[in-house]
Design a protein that fits this description.
single chain; Nuclear Transport Factor 2, Chain: A; 4-stranded antiparallel beta sheet; alpha+beta; about 220 residues; 6 helices
Length: about 220
Amino acid sequence: MLPIVRGCAFKLQLSLSEFSAAMSTIPITVALLVPMLLAAAAPGRAAGNTTPDAVVTAFYQARIASGTRGAPSADELALLAPYLGPELHCLLAAAARFRDRHSAHAPDDKPPFAEGDLYSSVFEGPTRFVLERHELAATRAVIQVRFFYDDRGVADRVGWVDTIHLARHADRWLIEDIEYQLGCDFCSRGRLADNLRSELAPTLDSPRWAGMADTGCVSP
C-alpha cells in the first residue's frame, strides 16, 4: 500500500525494476498468510490434535481441570469432545442421557454413571499424569499413561498405568478407547467403550430405554 500524506505535496517515484520486485513479494506473503487464517478459522479444530501425544496430554489436562465425575455433563463433554473419536463421544453422551432418565424416574436412587472417574482405573481419578510407552502406526496409536492421585498434600510416588487407544481421522488423532490396567478390587476393569456398551445395551421399561437403539451410536 502506498503511503498517503495529507497537507503536502508528495511524489513517489519507483523504477520499473523496483516496482516489479516489490510486487513479486505479494503472492509469497499471501501464500504464507492463507494457511494461518484458515487454521485459525477452522471450526471444532482442537489445537495440538496433530500427534497422539498432544491429544492425550490435552485430553487429560482438560479432564483434571474440569473435575468431571461419572458421565459428563453437556458442558464437560463439550470440553472433552475435540479429543474423542465419534463412537466414544456418542457413548458418553448416551450415558449422560441414561443417567438423567434414571434420575427423573427414581430421584431417590443413585443412577448409573453418577460417580467415579470413567477415564482411568481409579474411582477418584488422577491429579496428574505422565506419558510413558508409545506404539505408533499409520492410522493407530497406543499410549501408556502413568497416573498419580495426590491425596491431601501427600504425593503419590507410584501411581498406576492405563492404556489409551487412538485412531487417525483425516489429519487429526482422536481417542477411541481407554483400557484399564490397574486391576485392583475396586478399580474399573476392561475397556471404557465396552463397559459403556454393556451398561447401555439392556432394554428397560422403567425408565423407558430401548437399549443400544436409544444411544444412536454406531460401532466403527
